[in-house]
Amino acid sequence: MTNLLKMESGKLNAFIGKLAEAGMTAELAEELRLDHSRMKAWVEAVMVKIAVIFTVLVEYIQPKFEDLNKSAFDWAHPDYARAKFESIDRCKDVSREKREVTFKYMTIDRAMSTDAVLAEMDRQGVRPALYEELLAFAKTNPDEQRKHPIVALGSVALVDGYPFVAYLCQVDFGRDLYLYWTDGVWRDRFRFLVARK
Questions:
Q1: Does pLDDT of 49 surpass 70?
Q2: Cα angle for residues 56, 59, 65 (degrees, 5° grid)
Q3: Same domain, 87 and 155
Q4: Does position 42 have pLDDT exceeding 80, yes or no?
């Protein structure tokens, strides 16, 4: 790999231009210089924003609990047996017609509440994936959840009166389907599955 400082000035200027388009400022550069873990998260976010796009055929059906464990996952949280996911208000108008949907990841560089993550999605002009979209994504891209936990914030299920969302992860090499409490705090290890509004 070429050292960044040995890059031709034209290519370096183009690279700096791309960083500026992604939101880099002199102030942010100084903050990132002092916080290596935040810098790593920011660089990963930029790489995801630039490169990774997934097109998935989605059928808007919520499978039975038994079918979750038979088809796509090695384990699904037992509360899925009684969870019925409903779209959040900002996703009520999403078409439920079987179709191809293009997704990407949105990442965060610090701990954030669900409301803050949704506000950032609004700012970026994207919407959160629905539960059924997350399942279709998992089926089409089975190894993605081995890299990082993937969340669908567009649908919520009440379990014992508390709101939960679905997320994919890997535990002991298994592909698992978990639930996450929406009043919890999201960390930078999560990837949020989003689609264009």
A1: no
A2: 110
A3: yes
A4: no
Which of helix, strand or coil describes residue 62? Answer: coil
DSSP 151-177: EEEEEEEEETTEEEEEEEEEETTEEEE
Are 150 and 137 a contacting pair, CB within 8 Å?
yes
- pLDDT digit string, tens, across residues 144-197: 999 999 999 999 999 999 999 999 999 887 899 999 999 989 999 999 999 999
Give the whole-angstrom CA distance, residue 134 versus residue 137: 5
Same-domain check for residues 65 and 10: no
Radius of gyration of the chain measured on its C-alpha atoms: 18
Determine the structural domain holding residue 31 and report its residue range.
4-51
Element (H, E) at 57: strand 54-58
